[in-house]
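We close this part of the discussion by returning to an individual protein. Part of our work consisted of pairing the sequence of a single chain with a tokenised description of its backbone. No coordinates are needed to read the tokens, only the vocabulary itself. The amino acid sequence and the backbone structure tokens for this protein are reproduced below:
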Amino acid sequence: MAEDKDNNDTEQTEEQAGGKKKKLIIFGGIGIVLIITVVLVLWLFGGSSEGESAAAANDMSSAAAPSSSPRPEIGNALYVGMPRPFVFIVPGDSRERTVQIKAQLMVRGEESEELAKKHIPLIEGTLHEVFSSTTADRLKTAEGKGQLRELALTEVRSALEEVTGKPVVEQVLFTSLVMQ
């Protein structure tokens, strides 16, 4: 009987030790997963100080050497929405078509954003001239829309550069284009 009692005590001790090992392994695994998750989140969303310092060094070197093409100010991308959609009539293959375009401007930095907001009437006038000069056939294709966006960007940059001395706008974006 004493042997049976000793065997039962030994088995219970081994089961408790085995249960503790399992718990330790499970909690260790959970801890490792949490640590990896935190590191990945910080890496993805926290940015890299090395990349930022390298970008700053590139900006310094490019500022020292004159650039052949005008570049907007470096900074966060900001979007300036046009207050009203552009509505105009374009010639089509069989009849005239009414077109409505909603546009936004992508600028870099708060100074460029303020300049763009200040000169909205100039920008609207320039965009309306560019948009009105197109045809319905060109607006039916993605290539035609892309060419219109590029022409709009070139004309807006040119108009703003005459007034402000800077190109200000990096992209003209169409947020909506409807043709009837």
Notes: The longest strand covers residues 97-108. The mean pLDDT is 79. Residues 2-46 form the longest helix (45 residues).
